[in-house]
């Protein structure tokens, strides 16, 4: 199981372009609590959580230290399928991901705007599924910080 989580974390890090504009949302809660709230919000929204990667635990497992940092990998075929039907290369960037890391006595949620994610593909920024993904990410991160 740990190998799968580490492989997915590597895939997630490779799948995000280095020049992406990232959206950040501050939380007054610690990483684990913020991530628990995010995971619950994702489930309540009817999406599927595919993995929750705990980078700090991975570092500890090899006798290294790092601040708390986790990534939630999740999706909904109702949104992802239209993106992949528009351009199958969207499968490289899906499912969606939100990172949560330790910052200034709380945590920060970070994700890439789907319009940027699909920017190099044959997917228009104003595609209905892109707008829906943007709204969903905003609502999910908003729910996580309440």
UniProtKB/TrEMBL annotation:
Coiled coil stretches, renumbered: none
InterPro entries named among the record's database cross-references: DUF302, TT1751-like_sf
Gene3D superfamilies: TT1751-like domain
SUPFAM superfamilies per the UniProt record, alphabetical: TT1751-like (SSF103247)
Span of domain DUF302: 53-114
Keyword Signal among record annotations: yes
Signal peptide: 1-20
Pfam families the UniProt entry points to: DUF302 (PF03625)
Superkingdom of the source species: Bacteria
Keyword annotations from UniProtKB, A to Z: Signal
Protein name as annotated: Uncharacterized protein (DUF302 family)
Organism (species): Litoreibacter halocynthiae
């Amino acid at each position: 199981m740990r190998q799968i989580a580490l492989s997915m974390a590597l895939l997630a890090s490779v799948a995000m372009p280095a020049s992406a504009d990232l959206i950040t949302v501050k939380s007054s809660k610690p990483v684990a609590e913020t991530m628990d709230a995010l995971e619950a919000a994702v489930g309540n929204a009817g999406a599927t959580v595919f993995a929750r990667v705990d980078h700090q635990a991975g570092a500890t497992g090899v006798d290294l230290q790092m601040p708390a940092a986790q990534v939630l990998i999740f999706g909904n075929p109702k949104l992802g399928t239209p993106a992949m039907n528009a351009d199958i290369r969207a499968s490289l960037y899906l499912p969606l991901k939100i990172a949560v890391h330790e910052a200034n006595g709380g945590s920060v949620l970070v994700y890439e705007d789907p319009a940027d994610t699909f920017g190099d593909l044959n997917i228009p920024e104003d595609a209905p599924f892109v707008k829906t993904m943007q709204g969903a990410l905003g609502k999910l991160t908003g729910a996580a910080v309440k």
